[in-house]
Amino acid sequence: xxxxxxxxxxxxxxxxxxxxxxxxxxxxxxxxxxxxxxxxxxxxxxxxxxxxxxxxxxxxxxxxxxxxxxxxxxxxxxxxxxxxxxxxxxxxxxxxxxxxxxxxxxxxxxxxxxxxxxxxxxxxxxxxxxxxxxxxxxxxxxxxxxxxxxxxxxxxxxxxxxxxxxxxxxxxxxxxxxxxxxxxxxxxxxxxxxxxxxxxxxxxxxxxx
Length: 209
Known about the structure:
The protein is α+β, with helices and mostly antiparallel strands. It has helices at residues 2-21, 90-101, 145-151, 181-185; strands spanning 52-57, 65-68, 74-77, 80-84, 110-116, 124-129, 136-138, 164-168, 175-179, 201-204. It folds into two domains: 2-42 and 121-204, Outer membrane lipoprotein wza fold like (Roll), CATH 3.10.560; 52-116, wza like domain (wza like fold, 2-Layer Sandwich), CATH 3.30.1950.10. The chain starts with a helix and ends in a 5-residue tail after the last strand.
């Protein structure tokens, strides 16, 4: 939760700077049209806080359960009080649970399925500011700005959509790109669409004009 507050707090501080400026556009470059990882194999999904996981233990139905991952990234199951789940793939968590169950179950075989996807921050796309529903979305392969805006319900009437910024990366090395959301959503300019990557943050300022 502390990390969540820190991440959203930083995004909100950046948004405030753009909102005060109240510009209809900015001087950042456009988002690169080609995704750098295009053609590469999609990364394995990693479990995040607030995901829901179903755990099957073969020949031990009393240990089979469906549970949420706590905000601290841990889970508690029968016979396993406290185990880190966040940041692991379902397969990695399965193997860790098998090892933890060895003292209690002969040759345990565990399968982990993710029922509800949230993912860690590094596999989310976050939208802050003048969207109808500012949220953090789990990244999907091939996701674009248009997909994100559909998920958040579009812009509010007060949004300066063409002043929106996409932030990629963190700290001093973070890259900033200009987004023309008014052109995309209100004028239907499909050329204003752009790919997004896991970890991207979209900031939509308020128009003061």
